[in-house]
Amino acid sequence: MSLAILPDKFFLRDAWYMVAWPSEVTAQEPLARTVLGDDLVLFRTAAGEAVALEDRCAHRLAPLSKGRIESDGIRCMYHGVKFGAVGQCLEIPAQPQGHPNMCVRRYPLVEKDGFLWVWMGIPEQADTTKIIDAPWAHDPRWAPSQGYLHVHAHMSLVADNLLDFGHLPFVHPNTVGSVQQADFSTQVTPLTEGVQTDRWYIDVPASRFHQSVGRFPGNVDAWHCFRWHLPAVMSLDSGSAPTGTGARDKPHGSREGAIEFHHIAALTPQDEDHTHYFWIHWRNFEVDNPEMTDIVHRNIMAAFAEDQAMVEAQHRAVRRGAQTVPKAIMADKALTIIRQQVAKRV
Amino acid sequence: MSLAILPDKFFLRDAWYMVAWPSEVTAQEPLARTVLGDDLVLFRTAAGEAVALEDRCAHRLAPLSKGRIESDGIRCMYHGVKFGAVGQCLEIPAQPQGHPNMCVRRYPLVEKDGFLWVWMGIPEQADTTKIIDAPWAHDPRWAPSQGYLHVHAHMSLVADNLLDFGHLPFVHPNTVGSVQQADFSTQVTPLTEGVQTDRWYIDVPASRFHQSVGRFPGNVDAWHCFRWHLPAVMSLDSGSAPTGTGARDKPHGSREGAIEFHHIAALTPQDEDHTHYFWIHWRNFEVDNPEMTDIVHRNIMAAFAEDQAMVEAQHRAVRRGAQTVPKAIMADKALTIIRQQVAKRV
Amino acid sequence: MSLAILPDKFFLRDAWYMVAWPSEVTAQEPLARTVLGDDLVLFRTAAGEAVALEDRCAHRLAPLSKGRIESDGIRCMYHGVKFGAVGQCLEIPAQPQGHPNMCVRRYPLVEKDGFLWVWMGIPEQADTTKIIDAPWAHDPRWAPSQGYLHVHAHMSLVADNLLDFGHLPFVHPNTVGSVQQADFSTQVTPLTEGVQTDRWYIDVPASRFHQSVGRFPGNVDAWHCFRWHLPAVMSLDSGSAPTGTGARDKPHGSREGAIEFHHIAALTPQDEDHTHYFWIHWRNFEVDNPEMTDIVHRNIMAAFAEDQAMVEAQHRAVRRGAQTVPKAIMADKALTIIRQQVAKRV
Fold it and tell me: What ipTM does this complex have?
């Protein structure tokens, strides 16, 4: 295998990317955010519709994010040209006839299950059926913690990190992993546009995080099982159950006494050196306890800080180049599948 | 029209540029300043003559601005080579015969009306008749306030800002503009090497600045009328008069009760991303009141800070690129004329 | 002569470079250091052997300097792959059969006379006989002061500075030079791979540094005589003796009442804009006085700070380009010889 550590062209434009938490986008203050190198301005109309335009006035390219939101659009506060929700010009000061073909590029937006997705390809090809479902958002048996990281690394390196849980015993031995997980292998199954990965650790001590909230009397059977959706959304089941109860053989086995989580990670390239990382981590226990929401948040962020330090160091190293020739190992199977699928699509 | 927002080659070298206030250039401390990407060192001889040389020793290119001014020249303090006022080598330590053709590039300088102008083209083609006059500098009926801004933007964007006063009601609604100015049009007249622009606002509230120093009982007729001299010097008349007194029809009308200003703005490119912005703002009232000098200075700087924030944001946006295609509007007439004249000369 | 101030290709790879003080390299914490643009990781095995590998894991290029030293090698703490002292892969988690041809680039290291030298060329061509001797390190009649500077300049400019002592009266008039040294010439003798330079100042006041430790009643005969070894190691004798005692004519003359120093400067390019500068300055007086060790250290660092400021300013100037054409002077003889020798080898 000879895939480069940093692909030349890894970003799919014909895809939905998580762009912002819905609460970040208001009718009061424009939000500037960069996705795939495009600078966007996000705002809401008076009717509540979320809008994404390129963050450029179609007059002389001043940023609209320094403009003023009005009921039906946004006005550039340099020379006062105003644009509507699909980027069309609504008004030019001292020029009553307007301008027939002056418009700002617009980007389709969809708000769903607590995520706000932007389509970075040609607007006419935006296919909303490709947006993943997150039923946990509407299920009272699950309670969410959520967060965001701004990672100074190429999105593909952040994705690699999630696609290979073999790093857990080395990067996270004292948080969400444990050293006893090192020698377990992973079952990897290619999907049409993604991959499924199942990693079980049988009869091991629980990770520090799971032990602290699950208080297991002895060893556990723990798991990380996820589906990866191209280009970069992970939907993960994880948990720990008392060993020997057969959690792995569900539905036949029992998850009595187990703790379970569902996690969605949405990776959005800002540019070739930065990644937006949005995550929600639902749990199936103590769902009405806000303190537990904080505990889960802190534990996840502590582990992600460990990943971030390593991935950013790797990014800097790769950017600087190397004499050493990298070789794939068995644990790279899932990330290799995803990189090949993306390379094929790009 | 398809002029790019940032021209590829916009800098005229065969031109005079304001390089420093005369008081900045002394016989004690060399002054380093960069113009059109050239690093200059400025100093005075014992006789008081201002000198501009390239800020490079002709031995091994150490900066002369870290050297020592002597009565007839400047000595590099790395290996002690000394150069005279036209860049010729005067002395090499331990080498009595000197060096026949060792010299530093020199730049013609002219001190006039409180400005210090440098010629960036071939020295032999420097034509001092092209330097603008500033008679207000010698007229006791006028009193100056002056200032400097270091703008992190291409000079052409700073020039655009001055060439279109349509931005006043949007960028400066609470300082030197007012929202009621938005719908007035501008008369634009091309000159041989420049443009004349006349913008009148009839029967409007005075801007906050003019009202604070003019204390008008009612609406005013206000004006911004300037001549632009290639490449980037603006000579501007502005003022406010009680409405209906016919200020616009001068000499027939009356400017009784008016306040008048004359302003010179000299824009000097440091490089493609930075601009030196020198300005003097003369007034025709309270000329002996130093407090008024401060008030005018503060008001102008407050307005220019608003411009600077917008122009620097525009510069960053343009540098990052855009999908949106910019279109000219009617208000761009003057800046389009200037850009075409410069493009022709370059 | 038309050698550029900054050569395009000035770095010899087939050479030994001082990489770190031996005490910086331990079995506890990996040391990251960049040489000739290559990122190295340095550590010791449990047996005490110093090892230099490229600072890249051969799996996915994460930096080994964030890894963990084990008794026989270093383990990457991303996915746990482990490498031995010559860069060979020792272990891959969950992959018992290992990987036959997975290895990190290694660099030969030699520890000698208080220096740690790395060979940057092909390992098989490393010739340890080319490493210079420093007998002063083992001679009780000499006592060392030592230090390190990280210079933000191309190594060739730092080398130029050492190769022309004509800068002493201009850069160091109040530290290690004196203005009376300006008019003395230098005898320059090419060697096979280097140059010998002899510079004597007869009947002059001692430099401030030498006067402060030598307390001479009158003028001195002072000297700077060195051998330069390609690419960038200087071995320098310097000192001051009471004038007229014939120090210059040694062995016939007398150095009674003289103070003598031996200095080794080892310049190691970090990259094209940064240089590692290691130095040891031995003295032959008050060798058992630790306070004198500090005094020498402070005096040398004060002088080197003056050089550093000038060389970094020169580096910035050269990087920005120049209209002025640099010309060689007589004092450039030694540096010209070295540059020509290096150009021939590269």
Answer: 0.93
